[in-house]
Amino acid sequence: MLLARLSTCLVAMTLLLLSGCAVNRATANVDPSANLASVKRVHVVKVKEDERGINQVIADRLSQLGMKASTGPEKVDGVDAVVTYVDKWMWDITMYMLELTVVVRDPKTDFPLATGNSLHTSLTRKSPKEMVDEVTTNIFKGVKP
Asked: Which domain holds residue 86?
């Protein structure tokens, strides 16, 4: 009886540990007052520490969505929105992007108009381009170019 309970507990603990290894989450929040359809010109602010060119991947994707996108280390004038991002990386045999958060901001006030996030652990990992596509698709869902 004790051996049966122990083996049941061991199986349950193993399943809990294994199920925690695969996380897949993609979210987006758009401020109700934001009119993302009016965003035609955007500037992606490059994170100083970014050596992987995620800023360019985001700018390229926004161009695909019909916006005129630029990128550089500082904010610029004459745009409808400024895009900032945070990319988190993890090591699991190879480096991979664990999480990406993209924020679309009002260029005058820096107010976040929309925020998107993608989180994929090692077992559900995606390429940086796939994660950028996932986040931007969720942010601009329903917005026609």
From this structure: 23-139
**69 domain-assigned:** yes
Concatenating the DSSP letter of every residue in 67-102 gives: -EEEEESS--SS-SEEEEEEEEEEEESEEEEEEEEE
Burial (CB count within 10 angstroms: exposed 0-12, middle 13-18, buried 19+), residue 120:
buried
CATH of residue 31 = 3.30.160.670
Structure tokens at 87: 């990319």
Residues of the chain with pLDDT under 50: 3-4, 6-7, 9-20
pLDDT tens, position by position, 119-137: 998 788 899 999 999 999 9
- 3-state class (DSSP) for residue 103: strand
Q: Would you say the C-alpha torsion 143, 113, 38, 106 has a positive or negative sign? A: negative
Asked whether residue 144 is assigned to any structural domain, the reply reads no
Q: Does a structural domain hold residue 113? A: yes
* Backbone angles phi and psi of 72, in degrees to 5: 175, 175
